[in-house]
Amino acid sequence: MAGLEVRGLTKNFGGLVVSEDIDFDLRPGDRKALIGPNGAGKSTFANLVTGILEPSSGTIHFDGRDIGRLGEARRVKLGIAKTFQVTTLFPKLTVRENLRLPVLERENRGFRMLRRADGDPKVEAEVEALMAQFDLSKLADRQVANLAYGQQRLVELALTLALKPRVLILDEPAAGVPSGETHLITDAIANLPANLAVLVIEHDMDLVFKVAQSIVVLVQGRILTEGTPREIAADAKVRELYLGGGHG
To answer: Beta strand 57-62 with 65-66: parallel, antiparallel or unpaired?
Structure first.
């Protein structure tokens, strides 16, 4: 049950402090959201946890192991994965081909990534299961470039899940998704494996209040407060600083 444990995490860019003395826990099965105004340091925090950035001070432990100096690739291998605000897919490949890539890479068979894997029923079965989980089966042989943006975000989420992470960080999963398609994202998050630790970084407060069990509010690189959606919605400081006093 150790999961992810962050203590005193700080990041400086020269004289600018963008993350300051952050304590944060993410346990198996957690559904947490990280919110805050633009410039609060949310993406910086995610990049520190995933190894894209190196902390100035503080510690990051995963299952009791200090991973603060490990690079991004090593952390992915350990089970920490992150999606991005902009889709990072292969637009000319089909949905099936996109999802086959991380499965083969995870199995250290990347040299076969652009070949059909018809001879490997295990790989194809996993790809089919991923497509079914995210309601993508009917789109299996369509090029990703021809999908609606909300569907592309689902493909990216399925692709990240193919890495079999134990910690999944979703960096603005609804960014760019038309309002009529955001239900695709909320449904996909709701159907993620129950033992997966999930951190959602998002500006869409309707999505946050639907999927999060706990919400962490970040302001100017520091944690202002943490609580249940009901507690956060009722917090006067949060309403003033972020929710604009109008979220019921």
So the answer is: antiparallel
